[in-house]
Every structure is written in structure tokens, then in C-alpha cells.
Design goal:
The chain has two domains: about 200 residues, 3-Layer(aba) Sandwich (Rossmann fold), CATH 3.40.50; about 180 residues, Rossmann fold. The longest helix is centred in the N-terminal third of the chain and has 23 residues. The radius of gyration is 23 Å and the shape is globular. Strand 6, helix 6 and strand 7 form a beta-alpha-beta unit. It has a seven-stranded parallel beta sheet, with helices on both faces. With about 450 residues, it is α/β, with parallel strands linked by helices. It is built from 15 helices and 13 strands. Helix 1 packs across helix 15 and helix 8 packs parallel to helix 9. The N and C termini lie far apart (about 65 Å).
């Protein structure tokens, strides 16, 4: 094989909302920034951004960006796109009717797909699987955060496209699937039948937060009736985020004489479970907690950060998590965290926070009460958390190194690079490979 001087790898960011504060959107940005600043000589990384994005406005150099073109608005181009969607949509319905998997060629933006094929990329990386410009002529890598839709289908019964169609398409077509934890990799082998050699685990580094871009809390107070003191839960109201048990726990705290106040940020996610937010509001009214719990709805990321900075502590009662950005944000601000003892959260916070049983309302209430009352404990855990993210293990360079290794080795496996370019696995352990995780014994203090 002829030796190659450089390979070209695209990072698909053209559907990214740069101002939205969700964990998915933040992760996409952090991975892109890490790879684009990673010093190496083999790969040329390019950020593929929307047509109207000015690189400087999102913290990127124009040399590393490629803007997606605007669509051809001519009559014949529009007819072609519509005919394509209708034709392949009907084919997929027929395939589905006889038990075959859909091709999905009708989904997404046709002009983007055709344009991507013209870029001469060796690999195209989707940092999230929400895109549906499903490209078949370029080797694909995709990051799948978790398979909660498969592991906990009772919470995702409204969302069938992602679970039954899009994820399965990537399982069949992607040359590489990345994730942040080994248990997610095992889930992909179990539920999607993806072979181990096509999966790479790369630990999720904490976000790099620019303190100068945090919103003014006083301006937020003008828009939202914030209590004087509060703890925060930054999460969309997906059923597995467990807001209902959090509400019940707050009710227990108040019933036992401790008035606590909570601010919840995040979208109401009615696209996933159309009546779940209504159930949450009904639960609040049932326990007469209207003045104790406030939902802001979806906010720009700088405003989310301002609220996190103002909060006394974080409470994260989720039933499933595979990379929790609010934990890292709490560490950045030096805030104590009370969180669920599930999936990867114990490996992420170790002994720097309080871990509770998210199915046990009393356990959640005890954790909230303890942190609400004990400022010394909040400060102690907050300082430990702040020191945690200074560990080189969590650096962006290390995360970029992991993705770069996975991409290069995939290109070797595909025969696009010779075997001499193979990069051996980093000997440092992935966190959830540890057999024991130190935990803070907080129940002794209750």
C-alpha cells in the first residue's frame, strides 16, 4: 500500500445549535474543539458547519471549517428532492411490510448528502446520531451516547424512529461506533449486534467553560422568579430523569421541617413523552409545592451556567446516565453533588459527592436535607470535586487522543492506511473497568 502523508476526517456539526444548553449539544462542541486543536501530523480534521455559521463566532478558526452550502432552490432541484423522498419512502414502507430493514435513503437533506460525497473525506464523524443525512459512500464513525431506549424501553415507547430505525442503520453501516463507557459498548454488542472491533470507548472529558461567557444572574432574575436559595437539577424532563421522585423527595423534606427550593432547567421534552411534563406539574400541585419547585424551560447555555453557579448544590436523581455533564459543571463551580448510585455516575464522581438510591424517595430526601443544612459539608465536597477535574486523566488532549486513535485504527482496518500507522491502546484504565469505586459514607452524618 502506498504510504499516505495525511488523511482527511470531517466532523459533522452542521445541525448543531451552538447556543443550546443540552448535554448532547455541549458534548459535540467539546469533542470538536478537542480534535481540531489536537497536535499530530497524520490527520487533517475539518469541522463541517451550517451555511450561516461564522467560525469566529463559535470559537473556531476559519481554516478548519467547511460551511455546508445552501440548497439549490431551482424548480428542478426541488422536484428532484421531493421525488427522491417520496420514492424511497414508499420503497422503505414496502421493505418494512415484508420484514426487511429500511434503507433510509429518503431521510435528511439530499443536497448535503451529495455535497458531502464531493469532499474527498477518508472518514466522516458524527458526534451524535441525531443526524439523518445518512451517507453511504464515505466511511462513517458515529458516537452513540447510550442505549437507554433499549435498556429502559418503558420510558421511550413514543420514540420508535431512533430505537428501531436510526440506531440500527448506524449499527449496520458505521465503520466505527464510539461511546464513553464500557457498559454502553456491551449494550451495543447486546442490542445492536455490533462486533467489538467496531466499537471504541473514549472517556468523556469535562467541558471547558469560559467564565467570561456566563450570563449575569441579575438579568436572569428579572425573567424568572428565583428563590433566594436553591439547589439545581439541569435535565430535560425525559421520564428516566426521575423528576417525579425528586418532587416526592422535596415533599418529604418539607413535611419533616426542612424547606428546600429547587430550580429545574431543560426542555420539557414533550416530543418524547407528550404528557410527562403534565404529570410532573400535576405531582407538584398534588403536594402543594408550587413555591418550592420552579421549571425554567430550555435556556441558552450561558444562562444555565449562571444558575448552576448561583445554586447551593446539584441534585441528579436520574435512573440512567452514560456521561453526565452537570456533574462536570458542578466540579467546575466547586459545588457539592447529590446523585443517583446508577450506571456510570459512581465512576464519574467517586468520593466527591453523595450517592443515593434514586428509587428510594426517603434516601433522596435525606441527601437533599443533609446538603441543604450543612454548608461545611457542601464546601468540603465542592473543593474535592473541583480538584477532581484537574486530574490529567480528564484532559481534552487525552479525549482527543482517544478519538484520534480510534479513527486511525479504523482506517487501518478498512485498508485506507497501512498497518504501520496502527496506534496501540492507551494502557491507562477506562474508569468503569475499575472493580471498586471509592464512595463518601454520607449516611453516617444523617
Amino acid at each position: 500500500m502506498e504510504k499516505m502523508d495525511k488523511v482527511k476526517i470531517g466532523i459533522a456539526l452542521y445541525d448543531l445549535d451552538w447556543n443550546y444548553g443540552s448535554g448532547t449539544q455541549r458534548f459535540m462542541q467539546e469533542v470538536a474543539y478537542a480534535l481540531l486543536s489536537f497536535k499530530q501530523s497524520l490527520a487533517e480534521y475539518k469541522a463541517i458547519v451550517a451555511a450561516d455559521i461564522l467560525p469566529a463566532e463559535v470559537g473556531l478558526n476559519k481554516e478548519v471549517c467547511i460551511n455546508v452550502p445552501y440548497p439549490d432552490r431551482s424548480f428542478f432541484a426541488r422536484v428532484k428532492r421531493k421525488t427522491y423522498r417520496i420514492g424511497y419512502g414508499l420503497i422503505d414502507k414496502l421493505r418494512n411490510g415484508i420484514g426487511l430493514k429500511p434503507l433510509l435513503r429518503y431521510r435528511g437533506k439530499l443536497w448535503i448528502r451529495e455535497w458531502l460525497s464531493s469532499l474527498d473525506l477518508d472518514l466522516l464523524f458524527f458526534p451524535a446520531p441525531w443526524y439523518e443525512e445518512l451517507v453511504e459512500r464515505i466511511p462513517l464513525a458515529v458516537n452513540i451516547f447510550d442505549l437507554v431506549a433499549f435498556c429502559r424501553p418503558e420510558f421511550w415507547h413514543e420514540e420508535k424512529l431512533q430505537r428501531k430505525v436510526v440506531f440500527n442503520w448506524y449499527a449496520r453501516h458505521a465503520s466505527l461506533i464510539t461511546c464513553s463507557f464500557d457498559f454502553v459498548a456491551k449494550d451495543m454488542m447486546k442490542y445492536l449486534n455490533v462486533p467489538a472491533e467496531r466499537i471504541a470507548t473514549v472517556f468523556m472529558a469535562p467541558p471547558k467553560i469560559d467564565a467570561s461567557k456566563i450570563a449575569d444572574i441579575n438579568l436572569i432574575k428579572e425573567k424568572h422568579p428565583l428563590p433566594e436559595r436553591f439547589f439545581i437539577y439541569p435535565a430535560a424532563t425525559w421520564p428516566h430523569k426521575n423528576h417525579l421522585n425528586l418532587i416526592k423527595a422535596i415533599s418529604r423534606c418539607i413535611a419533616k421541617g426542612t424547606e428546600v427550593y429547587c430550580v429545574c432547567t431543560g426542555e420539557h421534552a414533550q416530543w418524547l413523552s407528550f404528557d410527562h411534563y403534565d404529570q410532573i406539574q400535576a405531582e407538584i400541585k398534588k403536594h402543594h409545592l408550587e413555591k418550592y419547585i420552579y421549571f425554567t424551560g430550555c435556556l441558552p447555555y450561558p444562562e444555565v451556567l449562571a444558575l448552576e453557579k448561583q445554586a447551593d448544590f446539584f441534585c441528579i436523581p436520574t435512573l440512567y446516565e452514560a456521561g453526565c455533564y452537570p456533574v462536570w459543571e458542578a466540579c467546575f463551580f466547586g459545588k457539592a453533588v447529590a446523585a443517583s448510585d446508577v450506571t456510570m455516575i459512581p465512576y464519574q464522581i467517586q468520593d466527591t459527592g453523595i450517592l443515593f438510591n434514586p428509587y428510594d424517595v426517603d434516601d433522596i430526601a435525606k441527601a437533599i436535607t443533609l446538603l441543604w443544612k450543612d454548608k461545611d459539608l457542601r464546601d468540603y465536597l465542592g473543593q474535592k470535586a473541583k480538584s477532581l477535574i484537574n486530574n490529567p486523566y480528564y484532559s481534552h488532549e487525552r479525549m482527543a487522543q482517544g478519538y484520534h486513535r480510534a479513527f486511525v485504527n479504523t482506517l487501518v482496518r478498512l485498508g485506507r492506511l497501512s498497518k504501520e500507522y496502527w496506534i496501540e491502546e492507551d494502557p491507562a484504565p477506562v474508569l468503569d473497568k475499575k472493580s471498586w469505586v471509592p464512595k463518601f459514607a454520607w449516611r453516617k452524618l444523617v
